[in-house]
């Protein structure tokens, strides 16, 4: 099964944390994706900022969320106006929605904070059309008094029903019942005529009502994004930068897993600009997680959300792509390396645009000598491109070809002679330094694999074979 980018980088976990109150907001979150228009994205970020920086309106936001919870998806009923004859249930749904809309507009208009491009139309006149009984309740029915014809028909029907109850002759009862069927048919015809009339009267409000559902969904989405930002301590990203700069970058999905194990995630700093940036480091040092964390934060910012860092700067990225080992290639009859090359061929068409390209241990599916040559060539090729390319690799000589080289600190300061008598996994967990530091371009990849094998395979026959080699 194909794994999407949002699944690979952990964005689906973030999406699952966005809790909306209305069906319209929930649909917004389900369809959440990067903004194509930077202006709309910036407006969204500004709106989130306004919600967070307006604590005086918190109680009113809570009230709005409670009203949103009571809202149902009635777009089908609204679209029936002018395109059919809504039944009484549809009119009930619309009338109830209009009552809620009145309350939503009243609360929103009373708030100190105002969201850009969010407003709620006044549809009180539409409510008046459906308030046929004059009670201003959410219920809906067509009263006898709505038309003279309906009044007479229902009066006749009640009289016939009285006669049926009082009659004793079977033939007469049958005659009355047949007459009642005729009158009931007339009643249905008159009610249908009235519903058509009501539908025509409401038709001028159809677009206003649909607009209201749209704005409820947008406001609900903004409130959900603001709530999540506050819950996770996220920050507003600075957009329109010339490069990516992340300070103390984090990944909530990974952090959750580590916290359940009693561990903590090490935040990292990184700068990536047009051209190639290479991350090297020890096996088990979390290079792939760092790559996915960068992708997660960039994608989140593109979706008009706060990001998971102490500080974040992004250019106006046009897209994000990740090339990593994928089981789908095998399912499609391609080797891992073959699938990687085919995806690489497609992605290189976009290198003249401001896109973020992420390569997780590229060319690992071929022999190390050829793999290293291919990756070095790729890094050199992308070093002059407009695209921002970030690589993780364990091949020597690759970092020297890049604009920037980051290295996972790993086990550089660990004294392997202290490993005796302790669990290898415990030692790795306690002593692996997952932080990044900017290294010299010619700093070689770490040679810690054998020492890690000593720690993890202690007492195993395989370790003796490795050491003999």
Question: What attributes does this structure have?
Answer:
single chain, 469 residues, alpha/beta, MutS, DNA mismatch repair protein, Chain A, domain 3, Rossmann fold, 2 domains, 3-stranded antiparallel beta sheet, 52% helix, elongated
How would you sum up this structure, described in words?
With 469 residues, the protein is of the alpha/beta class. The chain has 2 domains: 164 residues, MutS, DNA mismatch repair protein, Chain A, domain 3 (Orthogonal Bundle), CATH 1.10.1420.10; 235 residues, Rossmann fold, CATH 3.40.50.300. It has 19 helices and 9 strands. The chain has a 6-stranded mixed β-sheet with strand order 5-6-7-3-8-9, with helices on both faces. Strands 2-1-4 form a 3-stranded antiparallel β-sheet, covered by helices on one side. The relative contact order is 0.11. About 2% of the residues have low confidence.
Q: TL;DR of this structure?
A:
Helices cover 52% and strands 10% of the residues. The chain is built from 19 helices and nine strands. About 2% of the residues have low confidence.
Question: Which helices and strands appear, and what pairs or packs with what?
Answer:
Elements: H1 5-9, H2 11-17, H3 23-30, H4 38-52, H5 58-70, H6 75-80, H7 88-109, H8 124-130, H9 148-166, H10 170-202, H11 206-232, E1 244-249, H12 252-260, E2 268-272, E3 275-280, H13 287-302, E4 311-313, E5 320-323, H14 327-331, H15 336-347, E6 356-360, H16 368-382, E7 388-392, E8 404-410, H17 424-431, E9 433-438, H18 449-456, H19 461-468
Parallel strand pairs: 3-7, 3-8, 5-6, 6-7
Antiparallel strand pairs: 1-2, 1-4, 8-9
Helix pairs in contact: 3-11, 4-11, 5-7, 7-8, 9-10, 17-18
